[in-house]
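hey m, so remember when u said the tokens were messed up on ur end? i reran from scratch. heres the input so u can diff it against urs
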Amino acid sequence: MKSKLLTRTLVGALFIAIFVACLLHQYAFMAGVAFVIVVMHIEYYDMAVGRGGYCVEKVLATLTSLLLFLAVFAWKLWAFDARWLLLCVVPLGAVCAALVLDKHERGEVRKTENILFPVLYVGLSTAVGSLMLFDKGGAFSWKLFLSIFILIWMSDIGAYVFGMGFGQKPDSRKLCPDISPHKSWAGVWGGLLFVCLAAVVLKLVGWLDMGWAHVAALAVLTLVCGILGDLFESLIKRHYGVKDSGNIMPGHGGLLDRFDSALAVLPTAAVYLILFEII
């Protein structure tokens, strides 16, 4: 047990160090996110489709997600014409054509939805979320983006501490036992407390440069969307009968397991900030 905890702690610390290092330069971030997108696609396809077959379709779908993220990021970083985003249609159209023509698709079990879904789940979420790395003037700035992840992490820590301390008793109310039997309402309130405290600190140090009402809204959005993203990925794993999405991170599982909350929080937070003209 102690060795597993040590492994989990060391891997988690290494993950955070690499994550922060990638945020320090725009090209490092592009490379890091591209790697994450590819791995998350592989993990999803291993669960939903299996490792055999549909190789061309998997590659084209992964390429679509990569191109979507890179096009959006380049559009903000180098002020490219937004029309270049239409290039993402090319591999998307190709994967749709490949699925139609693939002989396996003539059988009873269709894989079309499973091939295309990661483009929305991973590619679009990552592309939209990356908009928070740029301020109103278009300059690359990592503080807001890292602040959102700090809110996610603190929400998870609060949920874990309160969930383990108060949510595992026989009379404790569970949040969604059919999907994730260990999640409790005590964990929700603990996550809310921790994420609000983190939001206050981030506001005071100047990393969340916006009004208090928006800071509070971001904290609540992070909590709610983080829980929904976690439950959704748990539902996917339960549906396909797997415990972890992968094993790239010993003690933690796969990258989908680590970014499940972020895939829901990032696009939601970005849309909120854009609607209120904060970024």
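this time it looks ok to me. The chain is about 70% helix and 5% strand. if urs says something different then somethings off w ur setup not the seq
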